[in-house]
Amino acid sequence: MVSYCYSQSIFISTLNTTGETKRLPASNPRFPNYFFEWSVGESSIVTTNTVGNFQVTHGLLQGFLLSNPIVPENGFWYPDEIKIYPNPVITDFSVELLSDLKGVVDFKMYNSSGSTMFIRSINYQGTGQNVQFNISNLPSGTYFLRITLKDFPEAGGYSRKQGGFKIIKSH
Fold it and tell me: What does residue 75 show for φ and ψ, rounded to 5 degrees?
């Protein structure tokens, strides 16, 4: 039985609306050949530095960070890690895996009543792979494909990524 299904992914991002770069001429008495860059948007990481009466606020939109930001794993597939096509499907569809994580990928397809239609597993090496499915034997309808990436058994077999995807079968 499917208890939940994810229809979209939400992950940390930065929205930039505008910005510009200004180079001051060499003849400028205070700041010869200085570059000023600015951006307007939502920044995830912001730091402010002050020296005397000169203050600089910078963040993820600008390149200078004192340390690399840590982006947590969210446990769900990002939109660019899985492509399913064609959808709607008549007989065959493909799942293109594009994650750089390695492990065992489990595919479980359920019908709208929650009954399991098939289960399939592959070893995935994190280099991209296209997996083909034939569902010509299934009646037309809405199905849910659950895709889970787990570590290889020797690494503990812990779940790393998961998600549910709607598959429409037409005749």
Answer: 85, 0
